[in-house]
Amino acid sequence: MPGRRNTRRVGIADVASMAGVSHATVSRVMNGNTTVDADIAARVRVAASELKYKPNPVGRSLALGKTDTIGIVVPDLSNPTFQAILRGLSIAAARDGYRVLIADSSEVSSEEAILAGEARRRCDGVVLCAPRMSDAELEELAPTLYPLVLINRTTESVPTPSLVVDYGQGIQELAAHLVELGHRKLAYLTGPDRSASNVQRLRGLEKFTAEYPDVELRFIPGGNTFDAGFESSDAVASCGATGILVFNDVAAMGLLSGLSQRGIRVPEDLSLTGFDDMPFARYTMPPLTTAAVPISDLGDLAWRRMREQIQANDAASPTNYFPPQIKLRGSTGPVKA
Amino acid sequence: MPGRRNTRRVGIADVASMAGVSHATVSRVMNGNTTVDADIAARVRVAASELKYKPNPVGRSLALGKTDTIGIVVPDLSNPTFQAILRGLSIAAARDGYRVLIADSSEVSSEEAILAGEARRRCDGVVLCAPRMSDAELEELAPTLYPLVLINRTTESVPTPSLVVDYGQGIQELAAHLVELGHRKLAYLTGPDRSASNVQRLRGLEKFTAEYPDVELRFIPGGNTFDAGFESSDAVASCGATGILVFNDVAAMGLLSGLSQRGIRVPEDLSLTGFDDMPFARYTMPPLTTAAVPISDLGDLAWRRMREQIQANDAASPTNYFPPQIKLRGSTGPVKA
DNA sequence: ACATCAAGAGAAACCGCTTCCCCGCGCACT
DNA sequence: AGTGCGCGGGGAAGCGGTTTCTCTTGATGT
């Protein structure tokens, strides 16, 4: 006898026998089917509430072929960006009666495809954040995941709704801002090598240098952590640049801390920009000039794109690009005379 | 015909007919049942991988009466504490092949019970974080959720594994630390009124004043945000206390910022403690003395308690109290002469 | 009064998988 | 050679619902 439970839960059959009807009728009543006589329906409802009956979602899922659940695959749940996406997604999905199943690939990109497949099998759709996955693998995976929404990735073969933050655009604007302030020697403190969003920033900076050939731009290896920023302060201080573009706010805050320990003043001696506009960015000393990414809107929109596909109202919706919004604060200022 | 899918997925029957065996045999092979002839097993495996067959989890769940999924109910996913718990839980559960379904009650405590019930029906167990739920409701709800782990709550009627952070103990130790440094006039910048963890801190401080009758302790209404801390700086500066216990790190950072704007030096003029040891606490100027709560261990342990109940190796495991660990940093110093 | 029909409820099929039950087969033992 | 037995695989019964199909029943029309 498979699936026996110690304490058997109340099932549709219990309600049916209590109300003196067939379980088909109980099912009809529970699903609001109006072809049931009002008296009988009332009797069923009484029995159901008497027994505190709630339909078993697993049984329903099997019969209906849907689980009212969507999966999200993230590379690292400790990353505030993914936390915000998850939050936005979860709240938006909940409004439509859907739940969210999470799959954390722990930065192991070889796991991502497997996790996504598993999640898809349990859920009605998948939101995939897989910054490290190769393009080839993504192209192959995407069609098998069908109701799929991509974050910060796009596919060519199958048209898949994608939500991408335009990091390249953002960093260009920050660089342009520094130029406006008179800076001619800039440096970019890079993020993790294999990070897709770091690559996008580099692309954006290529365009920038093409546009401003007279501006000098050098690259300093950095990272995405406070400590990485902190430890880069020597390299930054000695590189001769007066305007520093940092990969993200966390590293920028580390750098800020390191510079202040060396007695280098921001923005008097050096201008500094971050990226992400995390909550504390406005509270550093000085407050950080940065680029805001509307990430919780992103989670919300991810759900909307997912819902469109599940309901199949209209299929193809193109990639949405999110231009970051530049926040001018105290960490950037005119170049020293 | 219920549950028809547009593109029918490959099922166990397809594998069975391809391998020329019954689906019972396929099932046995897929589940590693050794009573299958090696040749046949191999044939089945070939067919399965040929068709890329993966068992449908919903079908399995129904047959087995388990979903390999646990639910977590949180009041607010934007709260770093719950993010950390979620992360710890998710990673630990994943190691044992379980997934996590999230339910965000958006601080609406009336939703919590409903969400928890729904989650329980879909999952093999529930981790419940419901700081605002009334004791009565919790007592009534707990038995219906059986494989249940509580965070920062306990029950009396049904013995339920609980993981509670001993905020009272932590704040007492911080206060004692200030006394050791010579402070005799202390103030507590409170958290949100209805927050259970704020109440626990207040309880701890009651004990503290009983133990140190010669120390003066006053209370200043605060909050749990940076801005709340910032705006309290006047009240703090004028209250005459030399040692300030702040509800949490975020508010403490706000206060720190406000004080520095007023030219009040920390720790020379005023000593300051936070609570939580959030990642940035060590990077403020000066670094924040605070109490570290091992929250991701907490997620990890939540899973372990859950697993114990699911496997039913041993039933009752008592409440685990987590004493916060005091981190002495630069924001506290000897009282001014 | 009889035929037609619509409404409403029960029986049964089905979703995809696991596992119990049982039967056929080959081997060993008497 | 006949019986007992263990092994392995097929058939079928579930898991808990939804939905189609079918049949009963009461109302309506002529």
Largest sheet of chain A: 6 strands, parallel
Instruction: Using the CA coordinates, give the radius of gyration of chain A.
Output: 26 Å
* Helix content estimate of chain A: 40-55%
State the helix count of chain A.
13
Regarding quaternary structure, how should these chains be classified? Answer: homodimer
How much of the sequence of chain A is in beta strands?
5-15%
Biggest interface, CB < 8 A? A-B, 47 and 47 residues
First-to-last CA distance of chain A: 85 Å
* Structural class category of chain A: alpha/beta
H-E string of chain A: HHHHEHEHEHEEHEHEHHEHEEHEE
**Count the strands of chain A?**
12
Compact overview of the structure:
Two copies of one chain form a homodimer. Chain A has helices at residues 12-19, 23-30, 38-50, 57-64, 80-95, 109-122, 135-141, 167-180, 196-211, 226-231, 233-238, 249-261, 295-311, and strands at 69-74, 99-104, 126-128, 148-151, 162-165, 185-189, 216-220, 243-246, 271-273, 290-292, 320-322, 325-327.
Describe this structure in words.
The structure is a homodimer of 337-residue chains. Chain A is an alpha/beta fold and 337 residues long. The first copy, chain A, is built from 13 helices and twelve strands. Chain A has a six-stranded parallel sheet, sandwiched between helices. In chain A, strand 8 (243-246), helix 12 and strand 9 form a beta-alpha-beta unit. The first copy, chain A, is elongated and about 90 Å long. In chain A, 47% of the residues are buried. Mean pLDDT of chain A is 91; it is low at 1-6. Chains A and B meet through helix 4, helix 5, strand 2, helix 6 and helix 12 of A and helix 4, helix 5, strand 2, helix 6 and helix 12 of B. Strand 2 of chain A pairs antiparallel with strand 2 of chain B, so a sheet runs across the interface. Chain A binds a DNA duplex (30 and 30 nucleotides) through helix 2 and helix 4.
